[in-house]
């Protein structure tokens, strides 16, 4: 669904918003099915957690970075309503995707409780500007229902932290827990927040629970001090070529691929890029080379 304007306004006012029913049913179902090719199904995991020590190594052990072997997962970051929301929130079409992570958590694997922090610490070399310029848009697309029992992200509304200098990235464990809001919502919902918002991961409140989400972050292009992942760094993986092959030129552009009409394209680059990525249709790029 198209993210309503009131939700985008809420991100500026409160620092975050939750949009229920964001993903269409088929996209959600396909992504959920694909999860079981990456992670153990909850019933399999909980049948014998000891078989999955890798998922208990740290709070972040369930993170898997884009691209994936599953088309249904690779389609998520370029989901048209997500890109539309990013363009509207960032007030530009010249935007890029700068981080994609899939994250699985299983109750009892480890304690997932965190202190409140602002995400900009590893999303920019500097600090966010407070005046809506160079903003980064960070998101969680929920792939499982998240109730109070399921380790929801907990966030502190921006008006409550406006007097804390932006240079401060972390609060002490327990600080502002009394003011936090839990981002509970059904599978298929979208949470959007900003990198200056204090928030934290929380632990499960019941055994046998699990949480799955994809985190997809966007920013205005061109501010070289901002970012997190490097897509060229992933280009040697076959799955990156497969992911790009299934995208439109606009969607590839979101990963930094030169758009049709870019001065990058000439007879040599058209030929050699086609040889590197035989599954990518070069017609739209060729059309604008004289
Ligand atoms: O998993 C979550 O709900 C939030 C995690 C988080 O904020 C972090 O690891 O930086």
Task: Describe the protein's architecture and organization.
This protein has 290 residues and is of the alpha+beta class. It has one domain: q2cbj1_9rhob like domain (Jelly Rolls). It contains 10 helices and 9 strands. The strands form 2 sheets. A 6-stranded antiparallel beta sheet has the order 1-7-4-9-3-2. A 3-stranded antiparallel beta sheet has the order 6-5-8, with no helix packed on it. The N and C termini lie far apart (39 Å). The mean pLDDT is 97. 2-oxoglutaric acid (AKG) binds next to strand 8.
Keywords:
about 290 residues; alpha+beta; Jelly Rolls; 6-stranded antiparallel sheet; 3-stranded antiparallel sheet; 9 strands; about 25% helix; about 15% strand; globular; binds 2-oxoglutaric acid
Question: In short, what is this structure?
Answer:
The chain has 290 residues and is of the alpha+beta class.
Please write out the topology:
Layout (H helix, E strand, L loop, with lengths): L4 H10 L1 E4 L5 H14 L3 H6 L15 E3 L5 H4 L5 H11 L4 E12 L29 E7 L11 E2 L25 E2 L7 E5 L4 E2 L9 E11 L10 H4 L3 H8 L3 H5 L13 H10 L6 H4 L4
The structure holds 2-oxoglutaric acid.
Distance between the termini: 39 Å
CATH first level = Mainly Beta
What global shape is seen? globular
The topology string of helices and strands comes to HEHHEHHEEEEEEEHHHHH
The count of β-strands is: 9
Determine Rg (CA atoms, Å). Answer: 20 Å
What's the quaternary structure here?
Answer: single chain
